[in-house]
Amino acid sequence: MVNLATRIHKLDLKNPVMTASGTCGYGEEISDFIDLSRLGGIVVKGTTLRHREGNPYPRMAETASGMLNAVGLQNKGVDYFIDHIFPRIKDLDTHIIVNVNGSTIEEYVELTERLSELDKIPAIELNISCPNVKEGGMAFGISCPSAEAVVRAVRRVWNKTLIVKLSPNVTNIADIAMAVESQGADSVSLINTLLGMGVNAETRKPLLSTITGGLSGPAVKPVALRMVWQVYNAVKIPVIGMGGIMNATDAVEFMIAGASAVQVGTAIFIDPTIPVQVIDGIAAYMEKHKIHSISDLVGSLQC
Amino acid sequence: VSFIRQLKNKLRVKKTVIDFLLLENKQLNKDNFLLVLQSPKPLSDIYPGQFMNIEIREATEIFLRRPFSVLDVDFEKQTLSILVKILGRGSKKLTGARVGQTINAILPLGKSFTKPGNDDHILLVGGGSGVAPMLFLAKTCGLKPEQVTILIGARSAGDHIDITDYLSFGTYHLTTEDGTLGEKGYVTDHPIFVEKLDIYDKIYTCGPDAMMKAVGRRALKENVFCEVSLENMMACGFGVCLCCVEDTKSGHKCVCTDGPVFNVNDLKW
Lengths: 303, 269
Hints:
Chain A is about 30% helix and about 20% strand. In chain A, strand 12 and strand 13 form a beta hairpin. Chain B has 5 helices and 15 strands.
C-alpha cells in the first residue's frame, strides 16, 4: 500500500491533490460529483474584504486546449464567507484553505486578521497574482519589493501556514519565490493564469469585456512545469504545482519537477470528478513504480 | 433549519456525469440535428428548461463542454433527446457523431421553467434551438391543448423542424422572416403580438437573444408573467467558474445555476 500523505509546512495533507481557487467554489458546488473528504484540500474561491461583483460579461473565451477568463474575483466578501459559507463547510474532512486577495496591503492584512479568528482554516493562500483586477492582485506579485512588502505584512498577523500564489507573468519567477521566502512564506503555489487575450476577426472586437484575461488549461502546462522546476531549485520551502493538470500523469510530472502537492483547476470545469481520478491515478502510478512515499517522487527529475 | 436543509437536499436531484450511448443522430434540415442518447442507468427527473453539458471528444480546438436543452425524455427507455443546431465548431463536431459512440454529459443542470397552474393559458415562443425546451414544456405541462399556444419562428421554411410528434399538445403558429412558411416576419410581427397579451397567464420563451428581448419587453409592458431562457457562454455549467453571469437587477447571477430560466422582471431588459 502506498502512502499518499504529503506535508506543506505545518499542513499535513492526506494526499497531494487540492482543488484550485476559483474552480470549485466552496467545495459544496461539486459535492454531487465527488466525496469532498477524498481531497487533500480545497482552496476556496478568491475572497476579498468586501463584496465584489467582478467584471462585466463576457468574461470567458475558449482557446485551443484551454480558456481565457476575466472573472475578476467575484465574491460576497469575507463577512459573508464567515457567517454563511464557512459554517457549512468547516466540518468537512479535508483542509479548507482560503485564497486571500486585496487591492492594498492594508486590505490583505485586515482580511487575514478576520480569517485568523476562525478555527479550521489551517492555511491561507495569499493571491498576489490575479491578472483580472484593476488594483492590487497581480501588481503585488510582479516585483520583488512589492511581493516582499505584502508577505511581510501578512506574516505578522498569520501564524498558521502561509502559502503565496505566484504569477507567471514575470521575467524571473524564481526571484519572486526567493523574495517571498525571505519574508517568511511557508510555501509557494504556482502558476496563476498567464495573461492573454482573444480577438474576434469578424467584429474586430476583443473576446473579453476586459480585453485581456488569464489563460489556463492544458495550453499552459509546459510553462507551469518549467516554472515549478525553476522555483523548486531556487527555494527551500515546499512548492505546490498547478497549471493544466487534467489527469494523474500530469500531476506526477509536476511532482517530479519539484511539487510537493498539486492543485487541479480548470479540469474541474470539464469534469468535476477529475480531482478524485487524479488521486487514484497517483496511487496506481506509485504502486506500478514501487514508490512508497510522495517525498520519493518530489523533485526526482533525472537530468 | 438544518433539518429543512437536509430534507431539501434529499429531495433535490443530484447532478451526475453520465456516459450515454448515441442511439440516433438524425439530420432534420440544413442546420438542425436530433440526437437521441441512452443512459446506462435510470435517468433522474429532468424538467423543461434544464440542460445537459456535453463533452465534445477528439477535437483539441474544442476544450469546453457545450450546453444543450433537453427536448424530450423517455424514462422507460432511459433516453434523452436534444436538438443540435450548428452554430460553431462544437455543435458541428457533435452533429458528426456516429451512432454507437459514447457521449459524455453532465446533467441535470440549471433551473427549469415554472410549472403553469391548472387553469393557466400559456404562450410558448421558440426560435432556433430554443424550440427544444418549448416543445418539452408543451408536452409535459399537463394542460389541455386549448390552453397551450405555441409560436415558432425561423428564417425560412427550410429552417423549421418537423413538429408532428408534438402537434397534439397545443395550437401551433409559425413565422418565417422570408414569408416562405406561416406569417412573414419575426415572431413579434405575428397577429398574436398585435393583440393584447394579457389573455395569457404565462409566457415562456427560448431562442435568439433579440427574439427573447422583443418578447420579454412586450410582456413587461403588459405586465404578463414571462420567463426567458438565457444561454450566456459558460465554462462549467454547475456554478463554479462564474463565467456565464447575467447582470440582473440583483447583481451578477450565474446563468447555469441561478438560471438559465429567469423571470423577465429580474433582468435589466
